[in-house]
Write a structure and sequence with these properties.
The complex is a heterotrimer of chains A (239), B (301) and C (342). Chain B is mainly alpha-helical and 301 residues long. Helix content of chain B is 69%, strand content 0%. The mean pLDDT of chain B is 84. Classes of the chains: A alpha/beta (239), B mainly alpha (301), C mainly alpha (342). Chains in contact: A-B, A-C, B-C.
């Protein structure tokens, strides 16, 4: 497996409080990797550190072999990593279309053909984004906004897609929609790093799931462990 | 006739203030900083026009724009960036200190007496046969304001850069993580505000050729008040607020003396009238006059 | 919180003020005037701090009360013979009474306090930028009316012939008194409640604190102290007009912010440092400083530059004060980031 994203001894602090301690793991090209753990474990922080939104106190972050630690968020995004942030962070007063166009800010390729094709693909994945193009994004439901948030990240044509709790607050059918979309996204060749609260579903779905506890990697789980509730609980809450 | 003249003067005043309001609102949108020193940009532009008095008018105006834009970009780098995370009180007082500093320097270097500006005083002539005391500069001011605002609306709504600016103003952090070039957007907003300041300088000096170190200070204060009263959070409400206070000042200034012998209706009490209105509006709509009631979020205790 | 710490917060500024007063006795009479001015500024800035520092609400209006106090004290203490010349059209109440300087200070404080109370009743419901602008509007209205209404003042002409009774001793004692009052207030239950509301108005309201009332108390006290300082000022200068109202407003606000807006120390230090700098440069301009001769006008430039530099690079002010000392309500440094550390 060629690692497209690699964390090596990553440490992140808020003031004197360590949020992530000596975290090391790899994400292979084309994989779907999950990251689960209880509240306060440092999952969001990890994603933010990858994107350069919070500074890394120590350790390395490598993308396609090159260090991206210390780069500004804009530079990281332009390198090929996109984030679907927690809480979606949609611009309520802009239209759905404008929200989508914003995602183009991180896009590397300039040619119109690929742009059209990507938009077609995104519309296929999430038809409501095309249907409600002119509506103000604030009028969309939670599930629709989540779809928009993912679509927005995808139009940047990233190599790696980071998602921060995309199923948060969504009804079960919509959670299915999200996970199905993720499968389609992986099929397209995009690598996915998925932070989630729904432990069981993530473990069953991903190629590999890391469990974060108190800022540290406690266990690695495979799809086969999805049925093993005891193991899940032990991993989640203790070492 | 008097009424029409007053109305046109009020429109002129409102237009000029609207331009300044946009300049202030743009910077606030992307930096969350209220730039009290904005008036000094206009002052610098006015001084430049005064000092290049004998030149070809077009060249003089171009130089004015260059100086003002240079000054505002310098302010951005030297002062706005370090102030990013300070409290609103600190920011306001710091930009005031900068304003005071620039005023003092101008006073020192160029003197308090001011210079006359010849460049565009031709615009001070009245239209037509002089029965209606409307000067060309009034029409120019209104037309320029309309064009500038229309151009701005187009920029913000139809271009990518405009979209990025609107996003940065609404939620800066998210814009960054989408790949929007934060610094570029900020610099562009600052640049635009400089362009507007220079425009205001050109228009103002046509009507008020005497340039002193506190040129446009009074206007800046009124525009700041107007912007807050209008609603600082969105650009259009801020602009409307600037226009409103300019219009109100112009209109009241025209109508007040003619009301008659009521106490306090002499023209000297214009300020009290305007500011009295300001207080009333703020008590009823603290978030801004033009912000719909449902969106009033400022805490009231 | 230890008693020792409490004491230090009061003793420090008081000692500093006393030392300044003492130093003032060692210099020439002319130089002593600068000391008096600096000490009066301490009173003004501490008065400002009583409201702005404790409530966290920005007010541009405190100088209104300073002005009202100055006019009240000045007009009432004009000698009966000159009064007719200076105040031609005033109300009989002002025209027919003359009082001594010391009582006039009391009247000044009362005038400032009452005016602040009246103004504050509607305005203290506002916060943030709205409060700032509304109080600024009050300032403008006060200036406008006092500058033009000849029934309560000399109108556009300057008020003159006021007995100059504020000497070094008075200025020092007054400054110390103001500092002590400010300290007593912030340590009192009223002050504590307001500080709680400053940190989090909603939580404070939920805890039963009437935020509006607490702000009003502070505003009125600040107004009274500002009025008092105005009385001191007019008896120091002997003349007064409202023309420098804007300059004074921002100067005093800048002094407070430069010193550090959250503490009594900050208010005192800010006032003294900026006044000191201003006086020093004034002397340099006049050639009174041996080794430095500054051309005219540089004083303003340097003072403004100093203020700008301090504010830009030391946003917490010279004293770098931690905003509040109520440990339970201290805000996390990066609230959003901390909330996302899951």
């Amino acid at each position: 497996m060629t690692a497209i994203l690699e964390l090596d001894g990553l440490e992140v602090r808020y003031g004197a409080v360590p949020a992530v301690r000596k975290l090391s793991f790899q994400v292979g090209k084309g994989e779907i990797v999950g990251l689960i753990g209880p509240n306060g474990a440092g999952k969001s922080t990890t994603l933010h550190a990858i994107l350069g939104l919070v500074p890394a106190h120590a350790g390395e972050i490598r993308f396609e072999g090159r260090s991206i630690r210390g780069r500004s968020p804009e530079a990281v995004v332009r390198s090929g990593i996109a984030l679907v942030p927690e809480g979606r962070r949609i611009y309520a007063h802009l239209t759905v279309e404008e929200n989508l166009r914003l995602g183009l800010a991180g896009r590397r390729s300039r040619d119109l053909e690929s742009l059209e094709r990507d938009f077609e693909w995104v519309y296929e994945l999430f038809p409501i984004v095309q249907e409600f193009a002119r509506r103000h994004a604030g009028t969309l439901s939670g599930g629709q906004q989540q779809q928009l948030a993912i679509a927005r990240a995808l139009v940047a044509r990233p190599d790696v897609l980071l998602l921060d709790e995309p199923s948060l607050g969504l009804a079960p059918q919509l959670v299915d929609v999200v996970f199905q979309a993720l499968a389609a996204i992986r099929e397209r060749g995009v690598t996915v790093l998925l932070v989630e609260q729904r432990a069981q579903r993530t473990v069953a779905f991903a190629d590999r799931t890391y469990v974060l506890s108190n800022g540290e990697l406690s266990t690695t789980l495979g799809p086969g462990d999805a049925g093993d509730t005891d193991r899940l609980i032990a991993a989640y809450f203790g070492r | 006739m008097n009424t029409i003249q007053t109305l046109i003067d009020a429109m002129t005043q409102g237009s000029i203030y609207a331009l300044m309001a946009v300049g202030i609102g743009l910077v606030f949108g992307v930096l969350r900083l209220v730039n009290f020193a904005y008036g000094q940009l206009v002052m610098a532009g006015a001084y430049t026009l005064a000092l290049t008095n004998g030149w070809n008018p077009a060249l003089s105006i171009v130089t004015c724009f260059a100086v003002v834009i240079g000054l505002t970009m310098t302010m951005e780098v030297a002062a706005f960036r370090p102030l990013r995370n300070a409290s609103p009180a600190t920011m306001l007082v710091a930009t005031f200190a900068i304003s005071f500093l620039l005023q003092s320097i101008a006073s020192l270097k160029f003197g308090i007496l001011g210079r006359t500006v010849g460049t565009l005083t031709g615009l001070n002539r009245p239209i037509g046969d002089g029965r209606l005391l409307v000067r060309w500069v009034s029409i120019v001011a209104i037309v320029v304001a309309v064009i500038a605002l229309a151009a701005l609306v187009l920029l913000l709504n139809k271009t990518s850069l405009g979209l990025h600016m609107r996003a940065a103003a609404a939620d800066f952090r998210t814009a960054r993580l989408l790949g929007v070039r934060a610094n570029l957007v900020i610099s562009f907003a600052v640049l635009l505000s400089g362009v507007l300041a220079a425009t205001v300088a050109v228009i103002l000096t046509a009507g008020t050729p005497y340039v002193t170190s506190d040129y446009a200070l009074r206007d800046t204060i009124l525009v700041l008040v107007g912007v807050v009263v209008g609603g600082l959070d969105r650009l259009w409400s801020a602009t409307l607020g600037g226009f409103a206070i300019g219009f109100a000042t112009g209109a009241l200034g025209g109508f007040l003396p003619s009301i008659g012998d009521w106490p306090f209706t002499s023209g000297v009490y214009l300020d009290s009238a305007v500011f009295g209105l300001v207080i009333l509006v703020l008590l009823v709509r603290p978030d801004g006059l033009f912000v719909p009631r449902g969106r009033q979020t400022v805490e009231r205790v | 919180m230890s008693r020792a710490r409490n004491a230090a917060e009061l003793v420090g500024p008081v000692v500093l003020v006393a030392v300044v007063g003492l130093l003032g006795t060692l210099v020439t009479d002319a130089r002593a005037l600068e000391f008096i001015e600096a000490l009066v500024f301490v009173s003004i800035v501490v008065a400002l701090y009583v409201f702005v520092g404790n409530s966290g609400v920005l007010s541009f209006g405190q100088i209104s009360f300073f002005i009202v106090g100055a006019y009240a004290a000045g007009e009432l203490s004009l000698p009966a013979d000159t009064k007719g010349d200076v105040l031609r059209n005033v109300f009989p109440l002002l025209r027919d009474h003359t009082i001594g300087s010391a009582p006039s200070l009391v009247v000044a404080a009362a005038a400032g306090g009452i005016f602040a109370l009246l103004v504050g009743m509607p305005l203290m419901r506002l916060s943030g930028l709205a409060a700032g602008i509304a109080t600024f509007a009050v300032l403008e209205i006060t200036h406008n009316i006092l500058r033009n209404w000849e029934k309560i003042g000399p109108g556009p002409t300057t008020l003159t012939s006021v007995p100059e009774t504020t000497d070094l001793w008075q200025a020092t004692v007054a400054a110390i008194a103001v500092v002590c009052l400010a300290f007593a207030y912030q340590r009192s239950p009223l002050g504590r409640k307001l500080r709680a509301a400053r940190e989090d108005p909603f939580a404070a309201q939920a805890a039963g604190i009437d935020v509006h009332r607490q702000r009003l108390w502070a505003f009125a006290l600040s107004g009274a102290l500002s009025g008092f300082a105005g009385g001191l000022w007019v008896h120091f200068q002997g003349t007064f007009n409202t023309d420098p109202y804007l300059e004074l407003t921002f100067l005093t606000l800048a002094m407070l912010v430069v010193g550090g807006v959250g503490s009594l120390w900050g208010a005192v230090i800010g006032a003294l440092v900026v006044s000191g700098l201003d006086s020093f440069l004034n002397d340099a301009e006049n050639g009174d400083v041996g080794w430095l001769h500054a051309p005219d006008g540089t004083r303003l430039v340097v003072v403004a530059a100093f203020m700008a530099v301090v504010l830009v690079f030391l946003p917490r002010g010279l004293t770098g004060v931690r905003e509040l000392r109520l440990p339970r309500l201290r805000r996390l440094r990066r609230p959003r980031a901390a909330a996302q550390s899951r």
